[in-house]
Amino acid sequence: MPAFRSNHEFKWEIPAKMVRALPMALGFLSAALASPERLRPIEPGARWVDDQGIAINAHGGGFLLHSGRFYWYGQHMVAGDAGNSAQVGVHAYSSVDLCEWHDEGIALAVSPDPKSEIVKGCLIERPKVIFNSQTGEFVMWFHLEEKGRGYSAAEVGIAVAEEPAGPFRFVKGLRPNAGHWPRNVPENSKRPLSPGERARLSGIAMSGGPIADFPIDLVYRRDFESGQMSRDLTLFVDDDGAAYLVTASEENATLQISRLTGDFLNVTGDFVRVFPNGFNEAPAIFKRRGRYFMFTSGTTGWAPNACRLAVADSIWGPWKPVGNPCVGTAEQKGTTFGAQSTYVLTVPGRANRYVFMADRWKPENPIDGRYIWLPLRWRDDLPVLEWTDSWIPTLGPD
Ligand code: DGJ
Fold first, then answer.
1. In order of start, what are the domains of the chain with their CATH numbers?
2. Distance 350 CA to ligand 1 centre (A)
3. Taking the model in full, what pTM does it have?
4. I want to staple 128 with a disulfide (CB 3.0 to 4.6 A). Which of 62, 156, 171, 330 is the partner?
5. Residue 261 to residues 170, 270, 374, Cα–Cα distance (Å)
6. Does the pLDDT value for residue 297 go beyond 80?
7. For atom 3 of ligand 1, which residue has the closest CA?
8. 47-77: b or e for each residue (b if 16 or more CB lie within 10 Å)?
């Protein structure tokens, strides 16, 4: 063993990841300090373009703040009829200020392989990405439907990446919680369907929307073995690092909240039912001062309906509905400003700390769907959504 080590063994090595993160962190800081007049305003419902002047294509979006940069992941839609199915994949953008967005390309691409679960023409909706600090991986969950089967497969798709903008590698599709009972159902409901119950259920035509006499406790029992249905979804990471899936399940009748495994690549089997027969979609959840808030919509396909707000002191509930948070005209209140929730972004250090994000869908020409972002206002410790034509995220306390 040499007495002295040569110089090169002592050279200061800044890890590559840190080198990449540094300009981002500085960018975030300078953007945070930039005078608001220098920022491009957020204009809900207008045609939004990226920093190259190209229309932003990221619908049903999910957001991640990582190393001082915001990432926006959404469905890349194309024009015309085919546009509502996945022809391209999940598109990613990044920004330091939420106003100017840079195209990061396709983060998860559909596959040309007809045997792939994410073959071109399947449905990939509402992608959400979270970072796992234990594994160092970025994990994407999305609503996955098999090509040609409409919305009947009702699965989640899971993909991972080493960098926030991808490329993401598809891991698997699944129906969550196979072989597990929800924690909040009575013991005597934890049993498979009887032949009579099965016959009753198969006689009911389910459309994904409310129907009279919808059976309140049959669907999750039917799906006990195969796993629970999962359509509109979001992810939430709590202060303790635990992550949760919130999803429209049971033929859209009931939301289910499930805890994810430590690697965020599966569910643990620990889950609750929320608002049985409430028919909620489009969940968007956040936490403020120890309290959980969840926006949802009703189930009217691509057509907008009134926003709903619920609050809870624990992620597991009980969740309490507190009505429609929108103010304004009857039309604005009745249609959530013509949009449907997708995410609530928490922005540290801004007066507009919570940003409600929603989609104004255009099913006849999906590529032209618009983004509705509104800063949350607070009244009696409850969020209020109010239309504004144009706004800028400004510095200041929550
Ligand atoms: C409403 C959902 O929120 C959307 O994500 C999409 O699945 C449409 N339904 C399809 O009709």
1. 47-389 (2.115.10.20)
2. 31
3. 0.91
4. 62
5. 18, 10, 33
6. yes
7. 282
8. ebebeeeeebbbbbbbbbbbbbbbbbbbbbb
